[in-house]
């Protein structure tokens, strides 16, 4: 195979390979040494991940509430490409359990997703960076200055810093008001982990109050991790705070002008089609979803409304498909397909889906990018993962 001369131009072969699923790319590494070299090249891997993320509606990953196992969900081709809300007999997706035999911890929640890599937290508060496609994993070392989890609250975010070509984990933590360690401390500590250098660093406390009922993960978009928080000025108005991964400091994103600045901190942030969104529960039979079409341009916020049933406690958009359809997470136990055209919703038919799952369903795209991308000395197990049908 080493003397094989391709009939097609190499540029065309590369372009075709860039459009294949991640698992297929992994299999094709065995074709020849030139292909092994090409498909293992860091530039190819990054280009493949970027292209697939921009065209593929992606897959979902979640944690089962019953046995704390990880599951990935793959949409069927008919669901991801055509209108399907009127169908009740078609299978929409397939869920599969993924496991790492050498990992004794139980998974607690999915924290973040970026370029096909997923950050997951265990019930022991350990953080793992995993690739659900290649089943590689890296355990993130604990930070010596981290607050005692029994006396504090914490939120995490995961994203990519294009300026330094580095993936970063951001942890926001603050003491419980009833703690015995620092009863008068009201600061929110900001700790950043660099996947590239494998080091933690503590920055100045956040200028905002992050003590909110929903300890949500940071929403990654445009090089920053976004959280809903409160300004510490009089009245504690709500803000959209963004921690910029390149400058490693906080700024603000203007919210919709019509939202109540006193309480939109209690809502949820999402990303839909590459745009920042706010999910506003009106506590009736409607949920408003605001989408910022142009990042940081306040006038670009647009709104659409989803009608919900009375027995629905929580509704969160996960992703938007073709034909104006949205996948929704309902009450941590169901996935719903909603049509923006006619307002029709129906429960998705997902083979193998756990009865209930932890809040934190996220999308990811197939990638060959390794969580051990920057360091060969990291703790990685790339041959022990298993996918159960």
From TrEMBL:
Gene3D superfamilies: 1.20.1280.50. Pfam families: F-box (PF00646), FBA_1 (PF07734). It comes from the Eukaryota. It comes from Coffea arabica (Arabian coffee). This is F-box/kelch-repeat protein At3g06240-like. Residues 8-47 form the F-box domain. SUPFAM superfamilies: F-box domain.
């Amino acid at each position: 195979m080493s003397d094989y001369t391709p009939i097609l131009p190499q540029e065309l072969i590369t372009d075709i390979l860039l459009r294949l699923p991640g698992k297929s790319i992994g299999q094709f590494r065995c074709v020849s040494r030139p292909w092994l070299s090409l498909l293992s090249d860091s530039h190819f891997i990054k280009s493949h991940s970027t292209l697939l993320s921009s065209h593929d509606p992606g897959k979902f990953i979640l944690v089962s509430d019953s046995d704390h196992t990880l599951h990935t969900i793959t949409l069927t081709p008919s669901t991801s490409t055509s209108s399907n809300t009127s169908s009740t007999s078609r299978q929409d997706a397939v869920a599969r359990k993924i496991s790492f035999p050498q990992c004794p911890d139980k998974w607690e929640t999915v924290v973040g997703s970026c370029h096909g890599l997923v950050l997951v937290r265990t019930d022991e508060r350990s953080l793992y960076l995993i690739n659900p496609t290649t089943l590689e994993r890296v355990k993130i070392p604990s930070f010596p200055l981290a607050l005692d989890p029994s006396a504090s609250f914490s939120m995490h975010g995961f994203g990519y810093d294009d300026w330094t070509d580095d993936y970063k984990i951001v942890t926001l933590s603050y003491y419980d008001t009833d703690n015995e360690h620092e009863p008068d401390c009201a600061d929110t500590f900001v700790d950043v982990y660099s996947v590239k250098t494998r080091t933690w660093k503590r920055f100045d406390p956040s200028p905002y109050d992050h003590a909110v009922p929903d300890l949500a993960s940071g929403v990654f978009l445009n090089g920053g991790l976004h959280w809903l928080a409160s300004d510490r000025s009089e009245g504690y108005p709500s803000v959209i705070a963004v921690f910029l991964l390149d400058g490693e400091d906080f700024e603000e994103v203007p919210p919709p002008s019509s939202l109540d600045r006193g309480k939109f901190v209690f809502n949820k942030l999402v990303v839909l089609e590459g745009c920042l969104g706010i999910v506003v529960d009106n506590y009736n039979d409607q949920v408003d979803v605001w989408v910022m079409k142009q990042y940081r341009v306040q006038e670009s916020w647009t709104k659409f409304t989803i009608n919900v049933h009375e027995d629905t406690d929580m509704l969160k958009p996960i992703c938007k498909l073709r034909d104006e359809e949205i996948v929704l997470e309902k009450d941590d136990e169901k996935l719903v397909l909603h049509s923006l055209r006619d307002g029709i919703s129906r429960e998705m038919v997902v083979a193998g889906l756990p009865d209930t799952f932890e809040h934190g369903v996220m999308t990811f795209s197939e990638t060959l990018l390794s969580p051990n991308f920057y360091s060969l000395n990291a703790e990685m197990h790339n041959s022990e993962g298993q996918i159960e049908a």
